[in-house]
Amino acid sequence: xxxxxxxxxxxxxxxxxxxxxxxxxxxxxxxxxxxxxxxxxxxxxxxxxxxxxxxxxxxxxxxxxxxxxxxxxxxxxxxxxxxxxxxxxxxxxxxxxxxxxxxxxxxxxxxxxxxxxxxxxxxxxxxxxxxxxxxxxxxxxxxxxxxxxxxxxxxxxxxxxxxxxxxxxxxxxxxxxxxxxxxxxxxxxxxxxxxxxxxxxxxxxxxxxxxxxxxxxxxxxxxxxxxxxxxxxxxxxxxxxxxxxxxxxxxxxxxxxxxxxxxxxxxxxxxxxxxxxxxxxxxxx
Amino acid sequence: xxxxxxxxxxxxxxxxxxxxxxxxxxxxxxxxxxxxxxxxxxxxxxxxxxxxxxxxxxxxxxxxxxxxxxxxxxxxxxxxxxxxxxxxxxxxxxxxxxxxxxxxxxxxxxxxxxxxxxxxxxxxxxxxxxxxxxxxxxxxxxxxxxxxxxxxxxxxxxxxxxxxxxxxxxxxxxxxxxxxxxxxxxxxxxxxxxxxxxxxxxxxxxxxxxxxxxxxxxxxxxxxxxxxxxxxxxxxxxxxxxxxxxxxxxxxxxxxxxxxxxx
Amino acid sequence: xxxxxxxxxxxxxxxxxxxxxxxxxxxxxxxxxxxxxxxxxxxxxxxxxxxxxxxxxxxxxxxxxxxxxxxxxxxxxxxxxxxxxxxxxxxxxxxxxxxxxxxxxxxxxxxxxxxxxxxxxxxxxxxxxxxxxxxxxxxxxxxxxxxxxxxxxxxxxxxxxxxxxxxxxxxxxxxxxxxxxxxxxxxxxxxxxxxxxxxxxxxxxxxxxxxxxxxxxxxxxxxxxxxxxxxxxxxxxxxxxxxxxxxxxxxxxxxxxxxxxxxxxxxxxxxxxxxxxxxxxxxxxxxxxxxxxxxxxxxxxxxxxxxxxxxxxxxxxxxxxxxxxxxxxxxxxxxxxxxxxxxxxxxxxxxxxxxxxxxxxxxxxxxxxxxxxxxxxxxxxxxxxxxxxxxxx
Lengths: 285, 263, 393
Known about the structure:
The complex is a heterotrimer.
Chain A: H1 2-6, H2 11-38, E1 40-43, E2 47-50, H3 55-96, H4 101-109, H5 116-126, H6 132-140, H7 153-176, H8 181-189, H9 194-205, H10 207-222, H11 226-231, H12 239-249, H13 253-278, H14 280-283
Antiparallel strand pairs in A: 1-2
Helix pairs in contact in A: 2-13, 3-7, 3-10, 3-13, 7-10, 8-9, 10-13, 12-13
Chain B: H1 2-31, H2 49-52, H3 60-91, H4 97-109, H5 112-126, H6 132-156, H7 160-168, H8 173-202, H9 205-210, H10 217-225, H11 231-257
Helix pairs in contact in B: 1-11, 3-6, 3-8, 3-10, 4-6, 6-8, 7-8
Chain C: H1 7-21, H2 25-31, E1 58-64, H3 78-87, E2 90-97, H4 100-112, E3 121-125, H5 126-135, E4 138-139, E5 168-180, H6 182-185, H7 192-197, E6 205-208, H8 211-221, H9 231-246, E7 250-254, H10 259-264, E8 269-273, H11 274-283, E9 288-290, E10 296-306, H12 311-321, H13 324-334, H14 343-350, H15 352-355, H16 364-368, E11 370-371, H17 375-378, H18 381-391
Parallel strand pairs in C: 1-2, 1-3, 6-7, 6-8, 10-11
Antiparallel strand pairs in C: 3-10, 4-10, 5-8, 5-9, 5-10
Helix pairs in contact in C: 9-18, 13-14
């Protein structure tokens, strides 16, 4: 106890050590290999060699900028959609959930128990051209008679949104649940309308959750490939599909690695900007 | 009109849950299908036989067991490691903060296929056999980031005065942590654990590369999909969900039985 | 193919054994046989030499899902049990091949370093088998131990990439043709051109992400010969495909997830595999599988012995499954195309209707219309790149 008190400065490092050690060994080291690979060139038959192949990077950006931008676009739209869908849901669970909070949270991640593939195939059935969803939309007029939902960018974005909903909803819930209801009462005592109370009290206090949720949704969504593969056409292909193809089919490991690092860099830059905009201290960054 | 207003949120929540669980409903429905061939796409008749024999297809039970075990272990370890990191990041000033943040975000930004392959390269080079434990290692690795970000969201809104008050009342740092901090961030930690579990039980690509001969549930399903996913997979998915929901419901009921004042 | 173990390999194998021993006991049972990635007869001497004639204790096989007969009640594999009963070799059967590229991507690192991957037999499609042979990642078969190899059907005896079948033996074959719904379409489909050009089929057509299958059909439809791919034919086929995508005629490129949409009517016609269609027609008898008039494709999944596999034991197994009786047993369950001569007669005893099913035992007329895709072209990165660009990656 005394030791800990005397060495207070060490505490953060002790807290960080186990987690960072795990990441250092099992993430940083592999990433180093990957970086090494990204500057290699060659082929299966001729072998691969480290040749400072910077053209892997320049090729990556010049050939695939369309897929890069599309990935960021889809991930962005999906994040916003996930936010709009999840916020009221998380609010409901946090403020009205009562004893059932745990069950409700479990319901949110329930879809993960049936595996990605099964979920997406189920959506293929639900959104089928002759299914009730498409029929309903056609009756209402939101969809033309000959149009479909599947194999479109709508389907891909909807798929991404659906798959990452829990990553948005859970952090939002975590932040909202912390808000002391008495603050809202106080706001109403001070004659604020419900809407004003929400905008001036609840929303700002939930910003850490918003920050966390948007990151946990956007980042993995940008690298997704499954939804584009199963629910889209070649015109919806994302950078994840390109990387998958370069790596597995074309065995072009150098380019796959270079594409991955480019994606990582793009996302990290966006995160940095986003963090600055929202304000770091409040986010606990 | 005010009835609508009051219950608008509940109505919305119902619709939202409906949306979330719609694919599950389809999965459950087709678990009762009686297909004549190996594909389970066309409704051919109602039957209970898959429910009677949920572990019929060989390897299915082993796959589920492996997935659940790995997910439980990985989420436990990742939650502990991640919570500690989150505490350090939010509570303390230290050098290397920026680097730590970078290290936390980077795994999430890396496409799974290259991460999986690179990790495999590591295991190969040091001569570790791939299998259950390498999957576990990989899952903890990518789970940590998600736990950190989730717990940080909770810690960011945490009122430090409560801890100060506890210490003013004579509690040492450990007691304060255990009796004040931890209970208050528990929802954040639990949410992190839930996310980690979900990520782990559903992971495919990284697991594929590092699984050796171990087959997890997603790997099993992917392999089976080539020739037709047996309806038992639908049954299993439903069962896991029901068991988990049942446990949660049970815990709710147990809590309401507890005498007031101890919650 | 003998090669003394390098010191590094020796240490690696020792490390593998050590890592396995350190697994906690209570999880070893559930871990299910993983942890030890050595070969059946792992000794310090390592790689079994071509001359060894002793059976190992265990045979490890990597195969595609549902590619061998299984007793659904007992969850055991009758064919494998029989093999064990006859030879005393235990069989570890792992269904971990889902996709050729995926399998290769997972195992390349080890193979390229000459390491064993813990399998005695693996089953891969023609062009991937060709790649494995080309790169030297396989062991030659012990032909003396496989007298039944003479039962191999004539059509498959001499593929370009393994003319004397020194490294491989077919496991199952399959056809690629057109699967379609005549009722929904309202007519007959006999050519790929119809898929690409019939306005009624707009947005209701899919092709496969497998290049040899899709491009094979396209090249045939364009009048070319996919068994020896000519660049001009390939380029023209690519153009037609791209046009189909741009106009919205082609809905998607799929793996075998065309099965769902074809069943529920989201697509009316697609490039499809015979084995899938056998299953789909069970629930949906109006679906049809046809070989286009211009020709279809036949592909074969081949048994190979990857580096470090036990050659004699693997070869003995191959001999066993080339016995027409055993082959019939397997075929009765698997329902793809049997490469073993004589199995058709044997299968009559099990299920007569199977013997007459031309998707399982294609007749001469059908076989005359199908081609094997050029294995070199299938693995040519320039061609693959062109195709990948079209399908969107």
